[in-house]
Amino acid sequence: MKKKRKGSHVIFSFVFLVLGFIVSFAYQIAREDKEKPKISDSQFERDLALRNELIAQEKKNNDLEQQLKKSQTKLVSYEKELSNEAKKFSVLASEAKDYRMYVGKVPVKGEGISVTLEDGDYIPNNENVNNYLVHEHHIFQVVNELYVAGAEAISINGQRLSRDSYIICNGPVIEVDGYQHPAPFVITAIGDYNVLADALNIAGGIKDLLVNENVKFTLEKKTAIQMDALIGR
């Protein structure tokens, strides 16, 4: 009997110990909650407003980021278009420069060749003297061949030719755009001198044709030739 009471006493002691611990712990929790500063309504509203403002700002930032991406895409497209336009303008500018050079509106310089055409040295008494003179068609043949070979500019005895120049015979002289020039006739052309020279010297070409017609033909390559722009044309 004494042993039973002693066991019950131990159990009750343990239960009371646990209850005491629980009560102490609950009291401590309640005390800490009580000591914590309470958030006022105004502070809560302010925190809520700040939170909402932050959310709104994040949304605005996202929207701006999307707009930036779209703007960057458009910018890339515009840059591509401008690049294409720049290429077109560059081509047009180059073509305009070539055209102005061709019509003689701008001075031009570069390498090229000089071709001298002279009357034949020996003129037999029983032959027509015209068969030994340089005529306008001889000059035309040289000029045309030079243009075909890529000459950028051509002059005759220092007078630059234009897109509508004319050459005619007038007795012992030739007339270029109304200006008379006596023999010998020096035809100067600016361009790749190797190409221009080869075009005239080709077998059976212009040089051989003129020599067969008793015209003295002299060709000289030049590294530097300069021609002024035409004035008043």
From TrEMBL:
InterPro entries: DUF881. The keyword Coiled coil applies. Pfam families: DUF881. Keywords: Coiled coil. The keyword DNA repair does not apply. Residues 47-88 form a coiled coil. It comes from the Bacteria. Belongs to the UPF0749 family. This is DUF881 domain-containing protein.
